[in-house]
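FORM 12-B: Structure-to-Sequence Request
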């Protein structure tokens, strides 16, 4: 227990140092400019400094030459595991939309109305900034957005949460039946993963998605499977915005299917995802 706590403190310390360093580099280079280009560079530097480099530094410190092995990045999975994982992520879209729709309807007590207003303002500000980032006039811009908003966050966040935090709390072996300790590690990591995004009205679907990544990570013993799923989830959002634009994105299937009048598709999606996860688990047990 003390060893795990010590490692978490080291990880958080490295994260804090590199985050401050990333912010300093941005301030020196851009002087705090709020232009879209400047903020994209800030996003890049913060993702690298906060989520990408700390796990690599800590894993090297803890495991030396076997750093990639400690992070479970030295082994992959069969091609059909990746294919099934991608199918699960695509199939989950209506279910995620349904859960997000239900999450948005949650209202805090009147005594906490001021907190609810702050949360809504944060959501709106994040949505505006995301729209600025997603704008791309050509394929080159799309590729940059896929790298910055899909691939890099997928790799960095999975390294930090599944690869590091979940591994500190529970470090199992491929093919093991998840123990009580594993379940606790997966759900604690998923909770923190969702909370750190600071988006209350998307908390539940993001936490459940994080838990799904955590279980698949334990089952497969490979970080690359949840990284792939995370990238597919982010990449579909980036691609949808590029294809449909801001106006169409408000009504396109990627954002609305499974919610509202199509809630039944969301229910079917969750049932289907559950079945596919059972199938994936059985495949990994072989």
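FORM 12-B RESPONSE
SEQUENCE OUT:
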């Amino acid at each position: 227990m003390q060893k795990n706590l010590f490692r978490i403190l080291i990880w958080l310390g490295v994260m804090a140092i590199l985050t401050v360093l990333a912010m300093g580099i941005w301030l020196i280079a851009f002087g705090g400019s709020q232009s879209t280009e400047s903020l994209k560079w800030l996003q890049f530097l913060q993702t690298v400094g906060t989520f990408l480099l700390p796990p690599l530094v800590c894993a090297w410190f803890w495991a030396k030459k076997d750093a990639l092995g400690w992070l479970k990045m030295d082994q992959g999975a069969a091609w059909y595991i990746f294919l099934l994982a991608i199918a699960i992520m695509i199939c989950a879209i209506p279910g995620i939309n349904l859960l997000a729709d239900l999450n948005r309807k949650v209202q805090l007590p009147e005594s906490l109305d001021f907190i609810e207003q702050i949360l809504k303002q944060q959501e709106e500000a994040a949505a505006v900034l995301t729209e600025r980032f997603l704008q791309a006039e050509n394929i080159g811009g799309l590729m940059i957005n896929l790298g910055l908003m899909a691939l890099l966050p997928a790799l960095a966040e999975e390294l930090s949460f599944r690869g590091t935090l979940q591994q500190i709390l529970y470090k199992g072996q491929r093919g093991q039946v998840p123990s009580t300790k594993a379940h606790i590690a997966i759900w604690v990591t998923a909770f923190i993963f969702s909370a750190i995004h600071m988006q209350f009205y998307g908390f539940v679907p993001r936490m459940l998605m994080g838990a799904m990544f955590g279980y698949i990570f334990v089952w497969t013993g490979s970080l690359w499977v949840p990284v792939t799923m995370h990238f597919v989830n982010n990449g579909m959002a980036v691609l949808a915005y590029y294809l449909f634009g801001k106006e169409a994105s408000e009504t396109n299937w990627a954002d609305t299917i499974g919610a509202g009048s199509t809630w039944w598709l969301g229910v079917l999606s969750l049932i289907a995802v559950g079945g596919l996860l059972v199938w994936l688990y059985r495949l990994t047990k072989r």
